[in-house]
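Minutes, project huddle
Topic: does the predicted pose make sense with FE2/S2 (inorganic) cluster bound?
PN asked that the exact inputs be recorded in the minutes so nobody has to dig through chat later. Recorded below.
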Amino acid sequence: MKQEKEISESRRNFLMKFSLGLGGIAALLAGIPILGALFQPLIKKGEQKWRVVGKLTDFAKGETQLIKFRNAEEDAWAGVSAKSAGWLRHKENGEFECFSANCTHLGCPVRWEKDAELFMCPCHGGVYYKDGTVAAGPPPKSLTQYSVRVNKGNVEVKTAPIPLTKITA
Ligand code: FES
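Predicted holo structure (tokens), as shared on screen:
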């Protein structure tokens, strides 16, 4: 009888420790992403990264092409929102310039109209000149420009967090 009681108590102790151990592991696993989310903005604020957007030979001189790339701040859970787009121009003199595809009014994607040499925003009629400055409509400022470099035959764009437009009443 006493032996059975000891075995039962020993089993209870084992199960209690096992449950506590499992609970601790579960709490640790749940806590890692929460701590990451809390401290990540402090670590990554304003981070910029060079992203390869293609080979030099992919961009004909005189052309303005839509490019897509991953943002500088790539959160694991961001999914498709971690991607950005820009309009990359290979100028006749060999230089590159790149404009954010997001309108500076409310962020709609602008499109390049080659014949008119204008960037047009379909949302509220914003229009930008070839150099990204505002031609008409509500955009409060020029299209954001990214730095571009050629590195080992690749064209790279220096991504940055997209500056949000301040809406004033
Ligand atoms: S979002 Fe482009 S004009 Fe409003």
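Observations noted during the meeting:
- The CA atoms of residues 105 and 135 lie 13 Å apart.
- Residues 164-169 have pLDDT under 50 and may be disordered.
No decisions taken; revisit at the next huddle.
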